[in-house]
Amino acid sequence: MLNVLLGLLPAFIAAVWYFRTRAVVLTVVCVAACCLTEWLCNIIAGKANSLGDFSAAITGVILAFSVPPALPVWAAIIGSVFAIAIGKMVFGGLGANIFNPAMAGRAFLTASFGVMMTTWTVPATIDKNMPQISVANTSAITQATPLAWSKEAIKSKDAQGSAKVDASTANNMLRDLFFGQRGGCLGETSSLALIIGGIYLLLTGVISFHIPLAVLSSAVIVSSIGYFTDSTAYASPFFHLMSGGMLLGAFFIATDPVTSPLTKKGMWIFGIGVGGLTMLIRMVGEYPEGMMFSILLMNSVTPLIDRLCKITPAGGMPNV
Amino acid sequence: MTFKGGVHPPDYKQLTEDEAIKSVPVPKQLAVMLSQHIGAICRPAVNKKDRVTAGELIGSADAFVSASVHSPVNGTVRDIALCSHPVLGRAEAIIIESGEDNQPMQPAADKFDASFNPDRFVSEEIFNAVRNAGIVGMGGAGFPTSVKIKINPDAPIRTVIINGCECEPFITCDYRIMLEWTNQILAGALLVGKALDCNNIYIGIEDNKPKAADAFRRAIKNIPAAAGVEVAIVKTKYPQGGERQLIKSILNREVPAGGIPPMIGVLVTNVATAAAIAQAVVLAGPLTHRPVTVSGSGIKQPGNFYAPVGMAAGELIELAGGLTKKAARVVLGGPMMGFAIADLSTPITKTSGAIVTLTEEEIGRAKVSGKETPCIRCGRCIAVCPSNINPTKIAHAVKRNMLDVAEQYYMSVCIECGGCSYVCPANIELAGFIKTGKILVARQKRLMPK
C-alpha cells in the first residue's frame, strides 16, 4: 500500500507546483480526516485499529486529488468522513466495500455542493494579469477546464458564426494538459506526473496493466469515432486521454483491487466499461466529465462480472 | 515447457541433501495405522497378544481400493487401539511391541544390478505382488498402487512417468534414493511398464537435481532392459511434483479437471513407490519401511532415515539429535502440504516422506501463522494457482459456509498445493479453508465419516 502512496507522489508534487498551499492544505486535511474517521469507526465497532494498512491515507489522498483546489476545508472534511464511514466502514472495512471510498466521497460532495465542486482555480503558474480566453466564463479567479471547452464545442455543434466553439480550442491545449498547467481537480491536471506514477505502480507490480490499458484504449476508440465523424465538434483522442480524471482514474482509482474484478477477463470488461462510459458521458451526456460516475457504476457491477468471468480450471471445465 | 502458475519457496534442501540414508535401530514399540491410504480402512488380521513376524499381514484390505498393512518387525500385538493420526486426527492402529530377535532393516538396493530384466515377470504376477505388498503412492497421496497398475482395456496406459521432482522444501529422501537406489527405482519403473504393457517411460526430475539425473542416465546405459527409459528434466518450481503439473511439463498435455491421468493414458508414480514395487515383485518384500527426511532448523542433526512404518515421529526426531530450543512446530510431510502434529507419538505412515520442524521465524516467513488481514482481492492467489481456479472466492465462500458457491468456483479441482496461502499478502490460509470445504462437502455427500 505504501507503494500506491509513492506512486501518487509525482502528482502531489505537480499539484503543489500549480496550486501551492491549497494542494498541501487539502491533502493534509483529507488524509487526516479519513484516518480519524477510520480510527473512530473502529472504536465504535469495537474492532482493532486498521490505520496501519494505509488504505485510509490512500483514500484521503485520492479524494483530495479529485476535488477542485478551491474547495473549502469543511467540505473536504465532510467528503472524507462520508468516504470512510459510509463508503467503507459500514460495509465492514477494507476489502468489504462495494464502491471505491474516495469516489463515494466525491459523489457525495458533487451532489451536495455542486457549485463548489465545479469552481476551478487558475494555476499559480499563470500570470494573473493575462486575459483569460473565454466564451462562457469570464470570472477573474475561475477558469473553465479544458473539458468544459470540449463540452461547449459539442453543445454548439450545429451553431453558426461567433456562437460556435470549435473543438480545436480544446485540442490546442495538449501541451498544458501534458504538463498540468490548466484548470481541474487538484491532482488530475498533470498527465506527465500521473504517467510517471502509473508506470511506477506497473513496475512494482502493485497493479496489472489490464485495467489501465482497457480504460485508455476504449476511451481512445470511442473518442476517435467522434473525432473522425466531426472534428470541429469532438476533441481529439489525445485530448480526451489527458484531460479530466482519465489518467488518475485509469491508473489509481479503477485499479483499486477491492472494487474491481479478480480475473483478467473481468478486468478487461471492467476497464472497457469505465473508459467507454466516461467517453459516453463526455460526448453525449450533460456533464463535461464522467470518470467518477463510470467508475462507481462499474464498481457496482463488479460482483456480477466476477460471477460471469469465472476462469477455466486447468484441464477444462469439470462436471461439478 | 512448464505448467501455469506455481511458486518458488526457498528449498532448504542443503540441510540434508548430502546425508546418506541411515537405517534406524528397531523401535521398542510401533503403532501401525490401519488407514494409511486413500480408500477403505483395513480390517485387523491379528488379535491382541498374537505373535507376529516381520512382513506378516496385520491389516487386510478387502475392498479393491485399499492397501493391506504388514508388521515391520518381529514382536507381539500389544493392542489394537485408537492412536493419533496425522490426517484423520485419531484412527485405529495395531500396536506392536518388538521382540529381541530383530535386526535393523537395510535397504534392498544392492540386490538390483544391471542384469535386471522385467520380462521374467508377467503382468498378473506384478499386480498380485504389488497388491499383496500393500504399496501405496509414497509421494504423499497414498493411493493404492495396485489399482493404478491394473490393466484397464477401456483406458490403456501409453506413458508411465516416474516422479522424481520432490518439489517441496526440506525434503530430500527421494533425492537420496535416486542417488543410492537408482537401479532399484529403474527396475520398479520397468515393472510398472511391464504390468501395463507400456514401453514409454519417463523419469521426471527438476533441474536443481543434476546429480540424480546423471545417476539415472548412467544406470540407463548400464541396464540393457532400460534402454528406452528417458530422463526428462523439468523446471524447478513448486508444485512441479504434482502429477497434473508434471504431465503438463513433460508431455504438454492436460489432465481433464475432475479427472485422473489414466483418462489420457498416463500413469504417474513416485520414485519411492517404484522402488517399493521392485522390492515387492523381485524380493517379495511388503512395504514396511520407507525413507524419511528429518529436517528443519529446529533439528540438531538433520538427516535421512530408512524407518519402519509406525515409528513415532518423536523417536525419529531423537535419532536426528532432537529438537533445538527454537523449534516451534513439527510438520509431518513438507511445509507446503504437510500436517502440523501436536503429538510427537504420532506414527509415520507409508506416505510420510518427511518430518520438518520449523522455527517461529520460519513460520512467520512461510506466512502460515501471521496475523490475518482482510482480502483486498489483489489476485496473487489466482496468478500462482496451478489449477487455475479462484482460491480467494472459494476460501471466502467456505468461510461463510456457502459450500454451493465454493463448488461453483470449482473447489473440487484444487490440488491443495498451498501456493495460494504461501503468496497471500493478507496471510489468509486459503488452502486450509479450501481443504476444510472439501472435507465438509465430502461429509455432506456421505463420502467421508464424520
Low-confidence stretches of chain A: 134-142
Count of runs of 4 or more consecutive helical residues of chain A: 14
Largest sheet of chain A: none
CATH homologous superfamily assignment of the domain at 109-283 in chain B:
NADH-ubiquinone oxidoreductase 51kDa subunit
Q: Termini distance of chain B?
A: 42 Å
Fold blueprint:
The complex is a heterodimer of chains A (320) and B (450).
Chain A: H1 2-19, H2 21-45, H3 55-65, H4 73-86, H5 101-112, H6 146-155, H7 168-171, H8 174-179, H9 191-203, H10 210-229, H11 237-242, H12 246-253, H13 264-283, H14 291-308
Helix pairs in contact in A: 1-2, 1-3, 1-9, 2-3, 2-4, 3-4, 3-5, 4-5, 5-14, 9-12, 10-12, 10-13, 13-14
Chain B: E1 21-23, E2 29-33, E3 43-44, E4 51-52, E5 57-60, E6 69-70, E7 75-85, E8 89-98, H1 123-132, H2 145-148, E9 159-164, H3 173-180, H4 182-196, E10 201-206, H5 210-222, E11 230-234, H6 243-251, E12 266-270, H7 271-283, E13 289-295, E14 303-308, H8 313-319, E15 327-332, E16 339-341, E17 354-359, H9 360-365, H10 380-384, H11 391-399, H12 403-408, H13 419-423, H14 430-444
Parallel strand pairs in B: 1-14, 9-10, 9-12, 10-11, 13-17
Antiparallel strand pairs in B: 2-8, 3-5, 4-7, 5-6, 7-8, 13-14, 15-16, 15-17
Structural description of this entry:
The complex is a heterodimer of chains A (320) and B (450). By secondary structure, chain A is an all-alpha fold. Chain A has helices at 2-19, 21-45, 55-65, 73-86, 101-112, 146-155, 168-171, 174-179, 191-203, 210-229, 237-242, 246-253, 264-283, 291-308. The longest helix of chain A is centred in the first third of the chain and has 25 residues, at 21-45. In chain B, the strands form four sheets. A six-stranded mixed sheet of chain B has the order 1-14-13-17-15-16. A four-stranded antiparallel sheet of chain B has the order 2-8-7-4, with no helix packed on it. In chain B, helix 4 crosses helix 7 (271-283). The model of chain B has no long low-confidence stretch (mean pLDDT 92). Classes of the chains: A mainly alpha (320), B alpha/beta (450). Chain A binds chain B through residues 53, 55, 93-96, 208, 257-258, 260, 262-263, 306, 310-320, and chain B through 3-4, 244, 248, 254-259, 373-379, 382, 386-390, 392-393, 407-410, 412-413, 426.
